[in-house]
Amino acid sequence: MVLTIRNERGEEIARKLVGVGAMLPDEQRTFTLSVEMNPASAGGKRTWH
């Protein structure tokens, strides 16, 4: 699975390959995605994590 993260302008800022293992034709995988956000720091500076 390829996970692509884009900013507000649609520009790609990160791309990660996530292995899901080998699958047989009758197998399925389930994915859960969670996003954690922190409030912006004071001073208006942007920090990248």
What's this entry about, in short?
This protein has no helices and two strands.
Description:
The structure is a single chain. The protein has strands at residues 2-6, 12-17. The chain has 49 residues and is mainly beta. Strand 1 (2-6) and strand 2 (12-17) form a beta hairpin. The chain has a two-stranded antiparallel sheet with strand order 1-2. It starts with a strand and ends in a 32-residue tail after the last strand.
Features:
49 residues, mainly beta, two-stranded antiparallel ribbon, elongated
Please tell me what the overall shape is: elongated
Overall pLDDT metric: 85
Fraction of residues in helix: under 10%
Q: Please tell me how large the radius of gyration is.
A: 16 Å
Using DSSP, what is the number of strands? Answer: 2
Total number of helical segments?
0
Q: Topology, pairings included?
A:
Layout: E1 2-6, E2 12-17
Antiparallel strand pairs: 1-2
